[in-house]
Specification:
With about 140 residues, the protein is α/β, with parallel strands linked by helices. The protein has a single domain, classed as Mannitol-specific EII, Chain A, CATH 3.40.930.10. Helices cover about 40% and strands about 20% of the residues. The chain is built from 5 helices and 5 strands; from the N terminus they run βααββββααα. It has helices at about 20-35, 40-50, 105-120, 120-130, 135-140; strands at about 10, 55, 60, 75-90, 95-100. Strands 1-4-5-3-2 form a 5-stranded mixed β-sheet.
Amino acid sequence: MAKDILSNDNIHLHVKLDSKEDAIRYTGKILVDGGYVEESYVEKMLEREEVTSTYMGNNLAIPHGTEEAKKNVLETGIAVVTVPEGVDFGGGNIVKVLIGIAGKGDEHLEILSKIAIICSEEANIEKIVNAQTKEEIISLLDEVN
């Protein structure tokens, strides 16, 4: 049986993070701990960030590995981290929601598009940031599973 792409264990609410690197490492570690990626994937997430920022606007960042990191993905999964106080992703871009993605093959493209549709509405980002339970996040991102 395949794992859920998003489970309660992959959601961390009200986290305080001090830097963009901390935020990416924290999000990546959830994917590692969940058995979705090898530990080396986290370095590829940081590499991706060097090439192009994963900040998407609307207080959202979607850190993910480089194309080359696909070999480090064991299962498709996502991690959601809320940072109500925000973390600076540079250039005044404040991130309050991190959605880390690891996709086998091209599965990450489908996940990205679903997340982009959900998160293009500012009201949905606010609901995620203000969520008090993991279930609230799962119901908002239900289409991804």
